[in-house]
Design a protein that fits this description.
With about 325 residues, the protein is of the alpha/beta class. Helices cover about 45% and strands about 20% of the residues. The chain has eleven helices and ten strands. The strands form two sheets. The chain has a five-stranded mixed sheet, with helices on both faces. The chain has a five-stranded mixed sheet with strand order 7-6-8-5-9. α6 links the parallel β6 and β7. α2 (about 40-60) crosses α9 and α4 (about 95-105) packs parallel to α11. The longest helix has 24 residues, at about 1-25. The protein is globular, with a radius of gyration of 22 Å. Keywords: Signal. It comes from Bordetella genomosp. 6. This is ABC transporter substrate-binding protein. Belongs to the UPF0065 (bug) family. InterPro entries: BUG, Bug_dom1.
């Protein structure tokens, strides 16, 4: 019995003694980043840019794994349940932390406790996009048709609770029209359906939509943010198109499981901050239609909490009930 106790104590001391070394040696193998959207989506594109920057600074490859579905809940569940050792990162969105809590009574992760937010990973304005063959050339045309035909004008999204879905709900409530939401498994599928004329419109990012915009297959009518974007400066905002208080922006956050040791989480956060400050990185993202907002220490969490409450108010206004 004494031998067993001594052996247990020796093992415990060995593990305890190894912990600082493990933190100091981090990372010593490849890291994965879970992106809760389909390959080719705007979030996937952004994730790969972040992964490349982090890999260069951490000295190990950061491999993107796409886990789409359930408004980011599938990816969030897998990330939250991963070992909190710094080898699993998660690119969460406003859907993960602000929208899903109002859509679902039960989630396979806790939006407020499962993750530690390491920093803002950018904003994604949503554009109201229609087919190039569509008769709608302005937001006013689109709204007029919606008013004349309640519930018949369709818009696609990457699923219930996605930013594209919520922007549509917000526009409908603001303009006093009823739009018919058509969820797809992914944003690229929805955009393809719009280009083919199968769905009237989609609220989508320019990041993923630009190839079809440049090819003349689709055209943007308005953008959801209070500002015009760098990549599509001629596209008016919804605010300047008759709805002055309209402002809706998708946002992203780099996260780790909440129990990740502070020294490891801080190491990743420092590397991510360096990536985000890099002028070449910021210029590339701006060209993709993804501006990065700088937050003072602690301010990003306050922003997330405020946006969560805003989504609660929107859900109440749009009569969205959790399932």
């Amino acid at each position: 019995m004494k031998f067993v106790s001594t052996l247990w104590l020796a093992s415990a001391l060995a593990v305890t003694g190894a912990m600082p070394a493990c933190a100091a040696d981090y990372p010593d193998r490849p890291i994965r980043m879970i992106v809760p959207f389909a390959p080719g989506s705007a979030t996937d594109t952004l994730g790969r840019e972040i992964a490349a920057g982090l890999g260069a600074r951490l000295g190990q490859p950061v491999v993107v794994e796409t886990k789409p579905g359930a408004g980011t809940a599938i990816g969030a569940q897998q990330a939250a349940g991963s070992a909190p050792d710094g080898y699993t990162l998660f690119l969460g969105t406003n859907a993960t932390f602000a929208v899903n809590p109002i859509l679902y009574k039960r989630l396979p992760y806790d939006p407020q406790r499962s993750f530690r937010l390491l920093g803002s990973a950018g904003e994604m304005p949503s554009f109201l996009i229609v087919s190039s063959q569509s008769p709608y050339r302005t937001l006013a045309d689109f709204i007029a048709q919606a008013k004349a035909n309640p519930g018949k004008l369709t818009y696609a999204s990457s699923g219930v609770g996605s930013t594209g879905h919520l922007v549509g709900e917000m526009l409908g409530a603001t303009a006093g029209v009823q739009l018919l939401h058509v969820p797809f498994k992914s944003g690229p599928q929805g955009l393809t359906a719009v280009a083919a004329g199968e769905v009237d419109a989609i609220f989508y990012t320019s990041t993923a939509g630009m190839p079809l915009i440049q090819a003349g297959k689709v055209r943007p009518l308005a953008v959801s943010t209070a500002y015009r974007t760098h990549d599509l400066p001629d596209t008016p905002t919804i605010a300047e198109s008759g709805y002055p208080d309209f402002d809706f922006t998708g946002w992203l956050a780099l996260c780790v499981p909440a129990a990740t040791p502070a020294p490891v989480a801080d190491r990743i956060a420092e590397a991510f901050a360096a990536v985000s400050r890099d002028p070449a990185f910021r210029k590339k993202l701006l060209g993709m239609g993804i501006p990065i907002r700088d937050f003072a220490p602690g301010a990003f969490q306050q922003f997330v909490d405020k946006d969560r409450q805003r989504m609660v108010d929107l859900a109440r206004q749009a009569h969205i009930q959790p399932e």
